[in-house]
């Protein structure tokens, strides 16, 4: 009998301990899991929010623009050789095209003819150049390019030189230095810089473009490092070919059907 009593006590005790252990483990899991998930969700959300600001920009180009802006945020010097090397490393034709878009349009592309914001980017086959986009205005139906009605349109000097000049101006005030590096006349460089300051309404490169750090400082201090890492991971995942927004075909068709031409014939 004392043996049975002992066994019954033992069973109860071990059951109690088991339950308690399970409960503890569960509590620990409860505490750990959701916190981790919430954090990851926040990272993901912030990465998407940032990317949503630049839906048409290839991630590779977006990162290079981030770094180009960081370079031009350093104090200006008379002979910015190091900055020049950094710029040349990151500025390719896609970055030159994207810089022009960021500077000229910011977040809103407007029709140069009627200032409508109802704009559609044309298909890749209809582009002037893979890096200079062509658009159609859904209000007046003219087509135009990123460089339409600008001095860059003539390609003399080429867009790349314009943009290299612009980025260099972010690192030095020495026209002499810039003209030597670009192999252009002092007076031409001066003219180019004045012109870009005027049409971009800015004193230095990428004023309206928010780097990831700037965006993160504004919207989510805590996750800065994690988001940056996620952004890099996402870039690797998606590869180079990304972010082509699908055409809004419904809106396109609707607008086109409503359009009656520049001089609608009076109904008889
Ligand atoms: Zn228009």
Write down the overall mean pLDDT: 80
Indicate the overall shape: elongated
Main sheet summary: 3 strands, antiparallel
- Over all CA atoms, what is the radius of gyration? 29 Å
N-C termini distance: 114 Å
Helix-and-strand structural type:
mainly alpha
Ligand kinds? zinc ion
The number of helical elements comes to 10
Order of helices and strands: HHHHEEEHHHHHH
* Amount of beta strand: under 5%
User: How many domain regions?
Assistant: 1
Task: Give the neighbour order of strands across the main sheet.
Answer: 1-2-3
Using DSSP, what is the number of strands?
3
Low-confidence stretches: 238-248, 259-268
Roughly what percent helix?
55-70%
What is this structure's SSE topology?
Blueprint: H1 2-53, H2 59-72, H3 81-90, H4 93-105, E1 119-121, E2 134-137, E3 143-145, H5 159-169, H6 175-182, H7 186-199, H8 212-219, H9 224-238, H10 249-258
Antiparallel strand pairs: 1-2, 2-3
Helix pairs in contact: 1-9, 2-3, 2-4, 4-5, 5-6, 5-7, 6-7
């Amino acid at each position: 009998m004392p043996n049975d009593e002992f066994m019954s006590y033992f069973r109860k005790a071990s059951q109690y301990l088991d339950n308690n252990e399970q409960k503890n483990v569960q509590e620990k899991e409860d505490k750990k899991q959701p916190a981790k998930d919430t954090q990851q969700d926040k990272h993901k959300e912030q990465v998407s929010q940032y990317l949503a600001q630049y839906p048409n920009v290839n991630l590779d180009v977006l990162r290079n623009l981030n770094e180009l802006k960081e370079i031009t945020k350093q104090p200006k010097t008379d002979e910015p050789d190091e900055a020049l090397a950094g710029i040349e490393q990151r500025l390719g034709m896609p970055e030159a095209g994207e810089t022009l878009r960021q500077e000229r349009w910011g977040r809103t592309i407007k029709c140069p003819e009627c200032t409508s914001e109802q704009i559609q980017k044309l298909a890749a086959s209809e582009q002037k150049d893979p890096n200079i986009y062509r658009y159609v205005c859904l209000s007046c139906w003219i087509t135009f390019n990123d460089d339409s009605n600008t001095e860059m349109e003539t390609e003399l000097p080429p867009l790349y030189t314009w943009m290299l000049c612009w980025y260099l101006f972010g690192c030095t005030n020495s026209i002499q230095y810039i003209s030597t590096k670009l192999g252009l006349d002092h007076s031409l460089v001066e003219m180019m810089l004045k012109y870009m300051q005027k049409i971009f309404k800015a004193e230095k490169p990428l004023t309206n473009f928010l780097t990831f750090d700037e965006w993160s400082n504004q919207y989510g201090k805590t996750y800065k490092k994690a988001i940056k890492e996620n952004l890099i991971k996402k870039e690797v995942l998606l590869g180079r070919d990304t972010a082509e927004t699908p055409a809004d075909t419904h809106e396109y068709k609707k607008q086109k059907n409503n359009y009656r031409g520049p001089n609608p014939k009076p109904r008889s």
